[in-house]
Amino acid sequence: MAWVVALVLFAEALGIAALNWFLGIVVDRQDMSLAGLDPHMMSVSSKAGGIVFGLYFALCGLVALLVAVRDRAPAGFGRVVLISAAVVHGLLGAFVWGLVGWTAFLFMVVVLGLVVLLLMTYDGRPGESAGTAPEGGTGGDGTPLTPPAAPTAP
């Protein structure tokens, strides 16, 4: 599942960067100002925003790829990056419902669901539940996790 999340986030990174770059070119070629703003500055801002968001989603895809390769749940900075990706997709989903339409909203919700599913259910160790310890394991202070067997009388 982490492979799918990584693939989707890499595709989204490329798509968002390309879309913003295209919008920057459109604004530059129209040579019209919006409320007195410089068209060249709007074009450069759109392209820069596309690069920044593309790199952000590529970073999120890289974290998901590392989860898939390492076969374990994300932790630390990677977990924070994936949580921020989930929040961003939730917010983008709310915005695109009114601005773009229900298909873009559906895409954002599917990606949000994939990221949350990766965060909540990925364990990476099939056959071993999270609450079990290896045989003969000890706690953090060195004491055995299971009490020793009571001695038997002869």
Shape summary: elongated
Class from helix and strand fractions: mainly alpha
Count the DSSP helices: 4
Distance between the termini: 56 Å
Transmembrane segments: 48-68, 80-98, 104-122
Biased composition (Pro residues): 145-154
Organism: Streptomyces griseoloalbus
Region (Disordered): 129-154
What can be said about this structure in brief?
The chain is an all-alpha fold and 154 residues long.
Keywords:
mainly alpha; 68% helix; transmembrane helix; membrane
How would you sum up this structure, described in words?
This protein is mainly α. The chain is 68% helix and 0% strand. The chain is built from four helices and no strands. The longest helix is centred in the middle third of the chain and has 32 residues, at 39-70. It is elongated, with a radius of gyration of 24 Å. The model has no long low-confidence stretch (mean pLDDT 83). It comes from Streptomyces griseoloalbus. Residues 145-154 have a biased composition (Pro residues).
Write the topology of this structure.
Layout: H1 2-30, H2 39-70, H3 77-99, H4 102-121
